[in-house]
Automatic annotation (TrEMBL), chain A:
<feature type="domain" description="IrrE N-terminal-like">
    <location>
        <begin position="36"/>
        <end position="171"/>
    </location>
</feature>
<dbReference type="InterPro" id="IPR052345">
    <property type="entry name" value="Rad_response_metalloprotease"/>
</dbReference>
<protein>
    <recommendedName>
        <fullName>IrrE N-terminal-like domain-containing protein</fullName>
    </recommendedName>
</protein>
<dbReference type="Pfam" id="PF06114">
    <property type="entry name" value="Peptidase_M78"/>
</dbReference>
<dbReference type="InterPro" id="IPR010359">
    <property type="entry name" value="IrrE_HExxH"/>
</dbReference>
Automatic annotation (TrEMBL), chain B:
<dbReference type="InterPro" id="IPR010982">
    <property type="entry name" value="Lambda_DNA-bd_dom_sf"/>
</dbReference>
<protein>
    <submittedName>
        <fullName>Transcriptional regulator, XRE family</fullName>
    </submittedName>
</protein>
<dbReference type="Pfam" id="PF01381">
    <property type="entry name" value="HTH_3"/>
</dbReference>
<dbReference type="GO" id="GO:0003677">
    <property type="term" value="F:DNA binding"/>
</dbReference>
<dbReference type="InterPro" id="IPR001387">
    <property type="entry name" value="Cro/C1-type_HTH"/>
</dbReference>
<feature type="domain" description="HTH cro/C1-type">
    <location>
        <begin position="14"/>
        <end position="69"/>
    </location>
</feature>
Amino acid sequence: MADADTERARRFARSILQEFGVSTPPVPVDRIIKSRKIALQYAPLDEDLSGMAYIKEGVGIIGVNALHHPNRQRFSAAHELGHHVLHASEISRAVHVDKGIRVLFRNDVSALGTEPMEVEANAFASELLIPEDLLAAALEGEGVDLEDETAIEALARRFRVSPAAMRFRLTRW
Amino acid sequence: MAGDALYRAFGSAVSTRRKALDLTQADLAGKVNMSRASIANIESGRQNVLLHHAYALAAALDFAKVSELLPPMPQKPLGEELKMTLSNQTLSRKTLSQDAEAQVADLISSALQPRRGKS
């Protein structure tokens, strides 16, 4: 299996943001998905499933587990959009179902080269929801202490992501 | 979906969402004016749910629509077996449960349905 190309994934996310003209957080991930004519469905799913991506006869579908925290749903939606943008041929062949629990810990796996699609979709989602330039603007040239829970939570709220997703993004700053 | 299974699915949806929002059963009970025991019974599928309770629960759980708490209507089958791949298979070596497969198939069917009367 090929290595994950996270730089390509981030590049795609940045060009979508530019095309959509996003200049302040939170990034409207639902509207971005709908503008690409992908059917976006929220439905109650088993707790450990975060979402799915599928292309059937040219119709794109994204499903998100409606039971998860709204901020986690935004990450799942962005992650599934990543599969549509980066892995269209794979998700045309079979329904791709995402187990969400390990969503932020997959980088360890990427070192082994086992789940490159997931690593790429996470890099895409991370860049889409927390774009580098908007994050830089939010930090106002200052750093942020990774141990400072309050600061991380405030930053996460502005971008409407979970503190865990924000921490993940900041460690790849 | 048979009656019992419907209440179990509803209850597990309430419980999952409640935990995602970091609420205790007592917190939720307070928001909807029910006893904690009722919430516990609903979550385990042992108590039938009145319609106004379903609305109150959906609102308290921060849903825009009650339907986000309800299992989907059984759809017409897609006419073929769906091939599914699961992320992290190499890690977990698990496959989808039959319930989860049915949820995903229903979701795809409703996504593919022609939009009717949607705003």
